[in-house]
Amino acid sequence: MRLPHLVYGLYERRLAASLPRDVVPRHIGVILDGNRRWARSVGESASHGHRRGADKIVDLLEWSEEAGVQVVTLWMLSTDNLSRASDELSQLLGIIQDAVADLAARGRWRLQVVGALDLLPPDAAATLCDAQRLTADVQGLHVNIAVGYGGRREIADAVRAMLRAHAENGTALEDLAESFDVEHIAEHLYTKGQPDPDLVIRTSGEQRLGGFLLWQSVHTEFYFCEAYWPDFRRVDFLRALRSYAQRERRLGR
């Protein structure tokens, strides 16, 4: 009965050892998808699936540290998710708050909230902001917590912030139109100052981004995994890194 486990462990170690240490993505984005479908597959409630998914996050961050990744962005709740039934949304927000508070209490990773906090209930927004404040001086892996996040909303917020900044400086609209450049938006994104994602992983077999890091992902490599997020294993993570390492990245050149 132990043979499959031993074989799996051997395969996992060989896979890890085969990865080139000089071809590691600096920034990985992860779409944590499939919690509800996983729960249905085992006859459990959606909230049970969300909690199992939240429990998987620490594993992912530890694997990322081991691999030498510098930034991980976790898409935990989209702007579209905010339209879910109130009972499920309330439970999901509570699970996210607990998970983020636990990550902050570990004092191991620097957390940054990315998303439209004004769309969230005040208590949820406060919990996320507290986690960010408590870990502001941590020197470990940088973890973006994407809650209430949508790529279109991020770009709209960046444009609004840019226009406000230029208005405060007295820049005429005509002058701004003449000098406008893509970097004006990049400077006001939620992730400003961070490297763009090199790799985005989506679980559950869905092969679309849904607006995740819409601006930042112009040169990103994508990896779609069949496993639901609660079933995502280290070997799945290593396979994603292997796939990334095998690709020729031209970056538009």
TrEMBL record:
InterPro entries xrefs: UPP_synth-like, UPP_synth-like_sf
GO BP terms, alphabetized: polyprenol biosynthetic process
Enzyme class label: transferase
Alphabetized CDD domains for the sequence: Cis_IPPS
Chain positions recorded as Mg(2+) binding sites: D33, E221
Gene Ontology MF term list: ditrans,polycis-polyprenyl diphosphate synthase [(2E,6E)-farnesyl diphosphate specific] activity; magnesium ion binding; Z-farnesyl diphosphate synthase activity
Membrane-crossing segments per the record: none
Active site: residue positions: D33, N81 (proton acceptor)
EC number: 2.5.1.-
Keyword Metal-binding in record: yes
Summary of the function given for this chain in its UniProt record: Catalyzes the condensation of isopentenyl diphosphate (IPP) with allylic pyrophosphates generating different type of terpenoids.
Protein name: Isoprenyl transferase
